[in-house]
Amino acid sequence: MLDLAMKIGILTRNPQAWCNLQLKQAMVKFNVTPVCFGFKDLMGTIGLRLGVTLHGKPIEDEVSAVIVRPIGSGSLEQIILRVDLLKAIEDLGVKVVNRGEAIEKAVDKYYSLLLLERNDIPTPATIVAEGYGEALRGYRMLGGNTVLKPLFGSRGVGVARVEVSDVAIRLFRLLSSQRSVIYLQSYIPHGFSDIRAFVVGDRVVASARRISGYWKTNVAQGAWTRSVKLNSELEDAAVKAASILGCEIAGVDIMVTRDGRFFVNEVNSQPDWRGLQSTTDKNIAEEIVGYVVSKLKG
Ligand SMILES: Nc1ncnc2c1ncn2[C@@H]1O[C@H](COP(=O)(O)OP(=O)(O)O)[C@@H](O)[C@H]1O
Ligand SMILES: [Mg+2]
Question: Which numbered ligand comes closest to the C-alpha of 184?
Fold first, then answer.
């Protein structure tokens, strides 16, 4: 029998991960066949008229779209190649969500915040420097109550508070000598909670307050989630922030201070939604798959 079902790829290292199982279930509902594969199953070619292949076959013959779950960790070379492949796949007419270009922007904490700032999204005051002396100058400019972050990172790993100048001096010297960049932000007093807005297309499909026992509010760091309805200002900011970076699916993190000011902390281009799903009746995986299918049909 001829298989007319649309095929959508789930690009992942772990097809059994909770979010991927949710996506697969959602695809069945939309009469879509899920095709799970990893970057290791892809080959980029030049001069062979093959473009990018999946298990040796032109990828555009295998899937109509690819949902990237997540791009994963790896060497700089591997990450750059993965982004290149996503761009090449998109050029073959396959819908890639999120696009390579969007992921590239969003994973870079400095560049993404720069783009948000340029587009008038409130962001925490931030400095980045290679040199120890400039980093120390920045630390003083920020007032000495700071958060140090890896330029590329997630789940709160390696994010640390730096509030004492002796510590700053030793740390920046060490980082600089190790060829690390120093990315430093002023501490936003958020009262140990922040907001995660899950954007699909041009809508916030779910939002939650992440509440923590300490200042890091990542679910991976032990925070729990509670449903929250966003006001239109925060909703608009989340949708706009995702769109500035070109993310069609995004987990936008917003810190709100007691006096009502808000700051977009980051736009996650490959967000997990397990914690968030427990706060809403809406099926987030179905929102994602429905969005991709509507784009393919439209
Ligand atoms: N400038 C800041 N002020 C206060 N808390 C912050 C700040 N930056 C990050 N945090 C806290 O640390 C957590 C992790 O930082 P984040 O920048 O989101 O890195 P990651 O990509 O590892 O999640 C955030 O969810 C937030 O709770
Ligand atoms: Mg984060």
Answer: 1
